[in-house]
Amino acid sequence: MLELITLFYILYIVIKMYASVMEIGFVMKAAQLNPIILSASNYLKAASYKIASQKLSLMTSLYDFFLFFIWITFGLSFLETMVTVENEILHSVVYVMGFIAINYLLGLPFDVYQTFWLDKKFGFSTIDVKMFVMDQVKASLMFLILGSALLWVLVWIIGSFEQWWIFGFGFIFAVILFINMIYPIFIVPIFNKLTPLEDENLKTSIETLLQKAGLKSSGVFSLDASKRDKRLNAYFGGLGSSKRVVLFDTLIEKLNKSELLAVLGHELGHFKHKDIFKNIASSGLMLFIMFALFGNLPTTIFTQLGVNGGAHIVIVLFLLFSPLVAFVLMPFFGLLSRYNEYRADEYGSACESKEALVQALVKLADENKSFPLSHPLTIMLYFTHPPLSERLRKLGMDIPHHKA
Description:
Layout: H1 2-31, H2 40-82, H3 88-121, H4 129-160, H5 164-191, E1 194-196, H6 200-213, E2 220-223, E3 234-237, E4 244-248, H7 249-254, H8 257-272, H9 275-294, H10 300-305, H11 311-351, H12 354-368, H13 376-382, H14 388-394
Parallel strand pairs: 2-4
Antiparallel strand pairs: 1-2, 3-4
């Protein structure tokens, strides 16, 4: 059984790498054609950034497979010998946290390269070493405390119920919902400063927009994203009464009022069409499938790995193989998500105007250096949003079809 699962994992890595190679070739050809949507200089910069990112993806895919091979051949059994805690639940928690810590440390060089070389080179990253280190320390401490508590409960569930995966799914899904609820109020302020929007005219217009859509929020805030990155973004954070409108300070600086309202109108489109609940349901379904699979693993897998079938091994196998399961399911959820994005664009353009939304999307792409075209395989496997060129065509912008 382990051989079959490993074969699927190898196939998963091969498909990922093939998609990256195809994307690189596609973008290289498209970059030689007349620029569309973006300014000529940013069109080439966006192509270069996409190519560099895909090359990094190739390297990380190889590295992930290397780590995967080490873990399933001797890593899991070796870690078992290193954890000598006698208490069963504590043993499982320490084992899983050790597994996560090792993977985090081994993957950290790629994060450093992405932040301090790739993103700096293309003018995105503004973070300094001190802030990067502090971010890592804060995130690690928070995960150590909350993650250990979460693991303790999950290990107890696995050891207490025969059909543990049903209860385990319910617990983890409830935790995810809770984190989403408290995220803008308690977690974001640990890393960023949220301040009430100072532009009263813009704030009033946003609140009017929210009222028309029937959305109640706990406020409109500006987030100091520029201290880490220059890219533009905005989001509705939280669930229920904790929901907040969060605008990156970079977005406020670059977009005019009409464009900002069109972008927020797009996000409100998701609210009006109940896409938020659909996304929650889709995520829940994906999580349920994963728990059902890993809650019914044959015992032969543990024997082949040279480990017992304890709760910690089940959780680690979940962490090892869940990217494969998510990869298989993603094209289906991505197809639904792209459809929802088109409908949200329609609502956003109705809130302000098609012209305002088009201008906003073009500015976002130009500032974020987002290449407007992608290979069909990449779109099918990864995209939750349609390519920018297709979104703008739907909004009435005349864009030539590039066949790279």
